[in-house]
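In this section we walk through a basic example: taking a raw amino acid sequence and producing a predicted 3D structure, encoded as discrete structure tokens. The instruction is simple. Fold the sequence below.
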Amino acid sequence: MNYKKIIFKIFFITCISALVISIVCSFFYYFIPINFPGTVGEWITALSTLTGGAFTLEGVWWTITDSKNQKEKELFFQYRPIVTSENLISVIENDLSQLIIENKGYSELLDISIICDKEWVDFKLNIGPEGRNIILPGSEHGFQWSCPFEKIKQCSEISFTIKGRTYLNVKIETKFTFKVTNLSKTQVNLVLITTNCTDSLTSDKKI
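The resulting token sequence is shown next.
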């Protein structure tokens, strides 16, 4: 959060408000034949005080909201699920492959879905106790998937993204990117090269 921009914005709005109040008070006092009690200076002072009070309340509200958001982020980082993948996957022609995912965090990952950047990869999603799509803390699951072997042999990289939600209803996406290496006519290996995690609470990217 850019605090300098927020402070400058509040200062700018306050100055503009004071200028508008001065112009309006002067207009009503000098150009409209109504007998207002008090002087222009007294009206400007009173209205400026009210405006300042309103901005003070706004500042207090912003401070409370910001403090709440910071607390939520602290709790999220403390109890979030940490999703990891195995470093090596063997893909054998005509066999089902597995992507082993482990939750090393302190809260469960709920409502899980998994996607691949290659549309010809097909997943079977049936995980957790009694088939529920949930990975508990300290547990792992193997996502079974299949694909045309000739197509994956022609790839240089392939990515899998695990999506879900967790504590405070925060959405999480973890993307695993693998390098494809050919071993033989019937087997290729996927070697993990990058892991990228984003969430709806702390990340700039909206998910």
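Looking at the output, two observations stand out. The beta strands are 83-85, 88-92, 97-103, 109-116, 122-124, 134-135, 140-146, 157-165, 171-182, 187-199. The helical segments are 3-31, 40-79, 149-153. In the next section we compare this with other chains.
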